[in-house]
Amino acid sequence: MRKVLLVIYFCFVSQFVFAGVISGKVDRYDTNYQNKIVDSKTQKGLSNAKITIPEIHYTTYSDKDGTFQLNADISDKTVLFVEKEGYKVFSLTVDNSVLKNPLKLGIEQTSPFDMQITDGVIHLGDNLFSDNSANSGDFRLNAKGHYLSQTFKRPSAGANQDVVIKIGTIIGLDTKKAKQFGQNRIAKVYSSPAEVFVNGHKVAILEVNGDNHTIVVNKSILKDSNELVIKTGRNLFQTEYVDYDDIELANIRIEVQEKTYYARH
Ligand SMILES: [Ca+2]
Question: From ligand 1's centre to the CA of 161, what distance in Å?
Fold first, then answer.
C-alpha cells in the first residue's frame, strides 16, 4: 500500500479570519517515513518532543531522530499536541487516518512575546449534543460552561507588528458553514458561530472546525490587562430551551507577528 505523508507546517493565513477558515498548510507526497517531528525552519528531526492525545490519555516521545510511533486507539476526531521546550505548543486535529498516513509535523521555535493562555483541551457548551454532531465521538470532557474567559497582559508590539490570537484547534462546531463543509452529519439544525471578544469588542466569529485559526486584534482596544472571551454558539432551531453548541478548543495563544505576514494584494 502506498503511504502518504502529511507535512503540516504552521502557515498563518489571515484573509479568512472572519469566516474562521484558517488551517495549516497540508502538503501530501509519497514516502515511507515514520511519523516525525521536525523544526519548521531547519527541517531537522527533534528528539524528546512530547506527543499527547489527552482525550484518550495517550502520551509518547520522539526518538533521537525525531520519529515516533502512534499506537493510539483513535475513533473520531480529537486533538493531538506536540510540546517541546523552546517551541510553540503545536496542536492538530487527528482521526484514525493518521494511523495509516504518517505525520511529519514542523514545530516552530517560540518568540519572546508568545503567551500560551490555555492548557489542554477546553470543552464549552452544556454536554447536550447529538451523536451526529461534528466529532462528538471523542467528547469525553465535561463542559466548563458556555464561554471561556482568560486574561492576558498587553503584548509589546511595534508599529510594524500585529497582536494576534492563535487558536490551535477547534472541534465540534455545528454551524451552518461547518455543515456545508461536511463537518457534521446533522440533517437540518445548526448553531450560531462561536464568538471571540477582547475587552468586550467582538474580534472574530468561528464557523469552521480545524487547526491554526489566526485572529488579528486591533491594538487600539488593548489595555495593560486584557480579557479574552470565547463564547460558543447556540442551536438556532431549539426554541424551548437554550442548547449551546458543544465545542472543543485547544492551544490558545497570544502572539506578536510582523505585519508583512498579513499583506493583502
Ligand atoms: Ca449542546
Answer: 38
- Most confident range (mean pLDDT) of 17-21, 184-188, 190-194 is 190-194
Compute the distance from residue 145 Cα to the ligand 1 centre, in Å.
11
Q: How far is the CA of 81 from the centre of ligand 1 (A)?
A: 25
Domains in the chain, start-ordered, CATH in brackets?
4-107 (2.60.40.1120), 115-259 (2.60.120)
Give ion ligand 1 contacts, CB < 5 A.
125-126, 128-129, 243-244, 246
The count of other CB atoms within 10 Å of the CB of residue 82 is 23
- Residue 99 confidence class, pLDDT cut points 50, 70, 90: confident
pLDDT in tens, 188-209: 789 999 999 999 999 999 999 9
How many angstroms does the Cα of residue 71 sit away from the middle of ligand 1? Answer: 32
How far away, in angstroms, is 134 Cα from ligand 1 center? 12
Q: Cα dist. 134→41, 74, 81, 241 in Å?
A: 33, 15, 20, 21
The chain-wide mean pLDDT, for the chain, equals: 84
